[in-house]
Amino acid sequence: MSLTADPPACTVPAAGGTSTHKLVNGGADKLIFKIKSSNNNEYRITPVFGFIDPSGTKDINITRTAGAPKEDKLVIHFANAPADATDAQAAFAAVTPAGTVTIPMSATA
C-alpha cells in the first residue's frame, strides 16, 4: 500500500490562487483518504474525502484565499478501503489510517 502526491509541494500566491495535485495509488488495493489542513481559514481543499482505485489517481484542488504569506501543510491520511464502502466520509470513520502523506504549502508574496 502506497500513496504519493504529484507535485509533492504546493506554492501559491498569498493574494490567492489554486494548485492541482494528483494523488497516486501505487498499490493493488483500493484506498480511502481524508485530507487535513494546518490552515482551514485560508485554504479550501476538494475533495476532503475520497477513494483511489488500485494503480489509479485522484486529482485534488488546493485553493488559497488572500492572506499573509506563511508556511502551512496538508496531511493526507489513507488506508485500505472497506470492500463495500460507497460513502468515503462515513467509511473513513470506521478505518484506522495506515499511513500519511504530507504536502508542504507555501504562500508567497
From TrEMBL:
Residues 2-109 form the MSP domain. InterPro entries: Ig-like_fold, MSP_dom, PapD-like_sf, Sperm-specific_class_P. Coiled coil: none annotated. Pfam families: Motile_Sperm. Gene3D superfamilies: Immunoglobulins. Signal peptide: none annotated. This is MSP domain-containing protein.
